Amino acid sequence: MAHVITDDCIACGTCLDECPVGAIAEGDIYKIDPDVCTDCGSCADACPSEAIEA
Question: Which domain range does residue 48 map to?
Fold first, then answer.
């Protein structure tokens, strides 16, 4: 199951560089493409606002 970015996202961009497969898209609240996400958790570990959940 892919990780999900919640409404707590502050769109800081920290997670973008952490995703090894480029599954995260920018926006007011970033989004993770579930078809691309490998569920590695790198983005969640890097998120300063703890807005990414499994």
Answer: 4-53
